[in-house]
Design goal:
This protein is mostly helical and 180 residues long. The protein folds into 2 domains: 1-33; 36-178, no CATH class. Helix content is 55%, strand content 11%. Strands 1-4-3 form a 3-stranded antiparallel beta sheet. A two-stranded antiparallel ribbon has the order 2-5. Strand 3 and strand 4 (78-84) form a beta hairpin. Helix 2 packs antiparallel against helix 3 (133-154) and helix 2 (98-125) packs parallel to helix 4. It starts with a helix and ends with a helix. The mean pLDDT is 85.
Length: 180
């Protein structure tokens, strides 16, 4: 009996220590199950829209893109553009114009452009030991605000989806190619 209690105690302590050491990676893994990270040839399919539609919304489809800033410390800080499957939804996949797929990709590319800009700015301060996390927050917040302004300008309801694609696809492609 005493041996079982000792083994159980050691197991519990080991699990606690492992959790403390890897908790950020565990949280990231749990988050990442519901996201698709940007990559050059990424494809988003209708089956990836796992969210529940908002009945108050007049749209047939909703794309949720974001930028995740991971920073356990300044030296390993980096931003990642993602598509969130749980927060994206589609009501009727038979009623989606072809341009809507292009809009989704354009938005994803725009988020990737800003993630790259954030990473470029982080690279400039990464090895400065006096850098505080507040600087990372400022970099992220400033760029995210610019992203939101660009999204409002490019994807307003002022034009049809087709016109938005015609007006802004080349601009977004050009922006993305300027930042590696």
């Amino acid at each position: 009996m005493k041996k079982k209690i000792i083994i159980l105690s050691i197991s519990v302590i080991s699990i606690f220590i492992l959790y403390r050491v890897f908790r950020y990676d565990i949280r990231e893994y749990l988050k990442s199950r519901h996201i698709i990270r940007w990559s050059k040839n990424v494809k988003i399919y209708f089956k990836d829209y796992e969210g529940k539609a908002n009945p108050k919304d007049d749209y047939n489809i909703h794309h949720y893109h974001g930028i995740y800033l991971k920073a356990n410390n300044i030296k390993d800080a980096h931003a990642v553009a993602f598509f969130n499957k749980e927060k994206s939804w589609i009501i009727d996949s038979t009623n989606v114009p072809n341009e809507e797929r292009e809009i989704q990709l354009m938005r994803f590319n725009l988020h990737e452009y800003y993630a790259r800009k954030i990473n470029e700015e982080i690279d400039k301060i990464r090895n400065d030991n006096s850098t505080e996390f507040k600087v990372l927050e400022d970099i992220y917040n400033r760029n995210y605000s610019e992203l939101k302004n660009d999204e409002s300008r490019m994807f307003s309801n002022e034009f049809t989806t087709k016109v938005n694609v015609e007006n802004y696809k080349s601009e977004i492609d050009s922006l993305l190619s300027t930042v590696e």
